[in-house]
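Standup notes, structure subgroup. Blocker cleared on the manganese (II) ion input:
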Amino acid sequence: MIIVMEAGASPAALDHVVRHVERLGLRPHVIVGTERTVVAVVGDERGAASSGLETLPGVASVLPILAPYKVASREVRAEPTVVQARSLVVGGGRVGVIAGPCSVESRDQIVETARAVRDAGATGLRGGAFKPRTSPYSFQGLKERGLELLAEAREATGLAIVTEVVAPEDVALVGRYADVLQVGARNMQNYRLLEAVGRTRLPVLLKRGPAATVEELLLAAEYILDGGNHAVMLCERGIRTFESHTRFTLPLATVPWLQARTHLPVVVDPSHGTGHAALVEPMAAASVAAGADGLIVEVHPDPAKAASDGAQTLDVAGFRRMMEVCRRVAAAVGREIG
Ligand code: PEP
Ligand code: MN
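Run returned:
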């Protein structure tokens, strides 16, 4: 349910409501909006209906939350959530661009890429140190050494580091280096991992599972939000269909559909979404036209030599061209890149 506070409700009244909710064995999430403050109440609500919440001082009304996802729903927060990490701003009319290699491979590779993508207008640097690979024989990432190299690239450029965490026991380690924790597509329904990143206060980029519905994506986000971490970005990265001309099928209707139902920003990954470098620029532009709040794109100084995902990776010149096109599209739809 949502407890809507009166416009002039005092902090003491809000505190009283929060404590009352906790006494009922439920979890309160205070959401301060520009127009009103609400308390989204989650947990087993049976018994709470007759507990007199609507009679507490400062309470304007008590409403049910109709969506199965609660804290993620637009019903509890009308205005968009803007996620910020250093120079990376995602949402609220700003289209944040996260770019970099699929995997961190060496100091030269990551620092050179970081400088190039920053100069082209990216505000976040991606790069996997812990890689979830389909085959156990493929390159698994440089692990902690990769995180150290990402930190060096941040030092050199000021870019926010976006990197994947694949297991709950790695969250503390990755969290010491990352500005944004990426939860990958294969882990979207790894509930222990979602709870672990929900206990941190680092922004999270949550990628859609290739076989997950958007409602399942929102419910996965809910695990993170329910832990008290409200800085969640959703990422459409393509789904598995009968189609085989692209690596995955990238459904861009997801962007406006999600934005109508959630206040969380929506990022698109046209690299994994297509699997082909030639398709990345047009689909990045289409994502911006569809209203995406951010892009995450694979870029490598020499994609042919990339340790992973070379076929879908742009070179630096290709990324620059992509940014020019996206800037023009963003201007046409009243948004700003970077
Ligand atoms: C990645 O970003 O390199 C990655 C592994 O992505 P996904 O989880 O979407 O497959
Ligand atoms: Mn990749």
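Discussed briefly. The mean pLDDT is 96.
Next: hand off to the docking folks.
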